[in-house]
């Protein structure tokens, strides 16, 4: 009789209004989901853009560093050339001074010969006789045309040609030596051109160094900002994960629950190394995460997931059979925690976490989990229509007193 009354009551109930309400709610949630997906897409695009900018800045910094090394190498080469030119100039200057000393010695020897001829009263024919000033330092220009024809004829024509050829050969050797010892008058111009080129290269090098420093400053600024954002999230998660893990593992026999914490392997450069996650269930000693059982790993993973969610809360969770590896006791703990964090419960209790709560969509096959839900959605196969259909059931009317 009770079942008949209940059936009659259920048949008379107006189901269209709740369905319309749920459809409206479903459409609203779909719009919000689309908006969140768009925001997520934009955030991913911005993150990718920033990452690309960082890569470009790194590449540009490497290019400038290579250019800087090339400029330094060019400057070293120019300095070596400058030193070589300076050494060549010094060598030529010494050779010129040596030749000038030899010329002075020859002129002194010539004056000695003229003085000896004067003492022996030998008159030498000259082209223009100098004034008799009593000084022997006057340079004489000798005239050999006044020699007697006898002395000129004594030498045969063939011998004369031979002597002339030898004389020309000696003159050629002496001229070649003079040209070889003559200083390069263009060396000073070349030196000035090298100095100008060195100045231009130095200016370019300084400009490249300045730009490299600016790029390095920008890169360091982005790197520091990335480090600050990461440490902000890490500090928040590392502070909240132990409290969440305790809530998921505490019981009447173990009211304090377990212990969980995070450690950075490198606090100065966290992106170069990993993060160590340690979870110790109640009454168990410290051990690596790999040595925990499947259920213990699941509870630890859920604690980490909820701790990350507390930093940047999302409107709702979708959990797909997270209770598969849990026993009934742990399933009840996880379900109770999720229920305590629901929007309605969080608004009523206002716990110390300071969160506003969240909605959870959980896929589960365990009745000990979904009997604590606010609504159920079941999926079954319609054999007549060869398709799947859904059933919904509102549990808010059967809240526990």
TrEMBL record:
Q: Which Pfam families match?
A: SMC_N
Principal place of residence: nucleus
One annotated GO molecular function is: ATP hydrolysis activity
| UniProt keyword list | Cell cycle, Cell division, Chromosome, Coiled coil, Mitosis, Nucleus
Give compartment(s). Chromosome; Nucleus
What InterPro entries does this protein's entry cite?
A: P-loop_NTPase (IPR027417), RecF/RecN/SMC_N (IPR003395), Smc1_ABC (IPR028468)
Tagged with keyword Cell division: yes
Q: What GO terms fall under cellular component here?
A: cohesin complex; nucleus
Is the keyword NADP in the record?
Answer: no
Q: Which residues form the RecF/RecN/SMC N-terminal domain?
A: 146-382
* Coiled coil regions, renumbered to chain: 19-109
Q: Which Gene3D superfamilies match?
A: P-loop containing nucleotide triphosphate hydrolases (3.40.50.300)
GO BP annotations of the record are:
cell division; sister chromatid cohesion
Source taxon at top rank: Eukaryota
Q: What is this protein called?
A: RecF/RecN/SMC N-terminal domain-containing protein
State the species of origin. Triticum turgidum subsp. durum
